[in-house]
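Journal club side-thread
Mid-discussion, someone asked how the predicted structure for our own chain would compare to the paper's figures. Pasting it here so we can look after the session.
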Amino acid sequence: MNVQHPLEAFTLVFAWMQYETIWEILTGTGIAYIPFLVFLVQAFSDAYTGMEAKAGAKRSVHAMELRIIMAFSVVVLAAQPMIELQTSVLEYEDPCGTNSDPADTPYHDVFDNYITPAQVPAWWYGTLAIGSGITGAAIDGLGCPKDYVQTRLDFDRQRINDEQVAAEVEQFVEDCFIPARSRYQRERPDVDPLLDDYGEDDPQYIGSYVYLNTYYQRYQASKPVEGWDYEEQRSGAYYDDNHPPPHGRPYCHEWWTGNADVGLDGPGLRERILEQMEPGFWDRLHEVWADFADGTEQYEVEDAMIQRIIQNEASSAPIASADLVATDETAGQGLHERVFSTVAVGLGTAWYDTVEHGPMMYTIRSAAPMIQSFLLMGIIMLLPFLLIISLYSWQTVFVATFGIVLIKVWDYLWSVSIWLEENMVRAMHPDTLSYLAASNVGNLLSPDGGTQGTMLMIITGLLHIGLPLVFTTLMGWGGYKALNQINAASSSTTGSVQNAGTRSGQGAINEGRKQANI
């Protein structure tokens, strides 16, 4: 049997363990037999208080026998545990990967100490198997779209975890980027060839190729930078050669690239920022780009990644990283004005990042299958009470079966929503690199005013949340109408039988009176 999430393998077995415990308590105390006592009392009560003759009393006995047989079949098939279920026979099937053993997941280390094999009633074992089979087959039919959204979410989670690198980035922005950008805005040099090669947005980037070829060669660090050797040629004017500092003050272009000749003195700041990415992220990133990034150079992908990491740092620590998002206007403001502007930008960025596509959607994607697992667990645990309260009614069994299968189908609906979302992203952002690497502030300030981002937010919310909700509501309404039709037909048939029985009984009484008069 397959499960839709590794956690479900453990919650499912745990739920049936609790079901078995509750069922044993109910049978041990005799509560599980109360419905059969109710059937006997109702049958004798109907026969005693009814006005029918022997035919009517006989009908009541037959009705009682039928109800007992139906209830007994519910007990045997849908109440009494009989088929063993354990986590070792459950598999998590990744539609776009391979089958995996839940024992290889982190959940196993926690839950395995509490999980023992459980017994499952035959009816519910079949229900779960059918529901999982239908859902798995439907998901397989969708195929595997490129995971642009998840890659974007992975982009958003990248941070500079090394405090030394983070401090060095701030120093580089203060000593190199802001002075170079301010000078570029004042002088407006003729750098059209560079802009044609690297894009009009290149001057917005701290590793700008325009600045590397112009102003970064004129500016240097204002204080020694760890990892750079002291050289009299570039730092001698600031220090006594007899008492040199432990580190040197590199020029901005070599600070960024590693050396004026690129990399002779070890990794520069650019490479050190790239090393902050999560292990294996490059492999996933390149896989996403493989089908549509023909002609995209490696350095373009790396630069986009650096920009995203720095923007993430600016939004998560707005005051400490004020200059990471400094603009021409803020560069000339006073300290209090810059702090106020930075806080405003930081709060706006954090809000937009939360409500549009960042942590909220990551949480929804991660939490939805877990909620499904816990919901199934709760329903299964409470089934014994439901069966007894309904007097072992097959109608209740069918309703519960319908509900369990419906919840299992939610996973297919989420897969459909993910498939549509991925393709909508590709359709609305043909240049997927710009979608993955764009900052949320950049989206707000984009020419369309963030319209595409807002549309994706609405579509994502409707698909991930609204689609299962609407589907469940419609199916519930359809099931309710179907039950009403069945009940109406049953009442009509029962009424006809009762009328026929009454007429037969009355006919027998009249015939007896005639015979007595004779």
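Post-session note: Residues 451-517 form the longest helix (67 residues).
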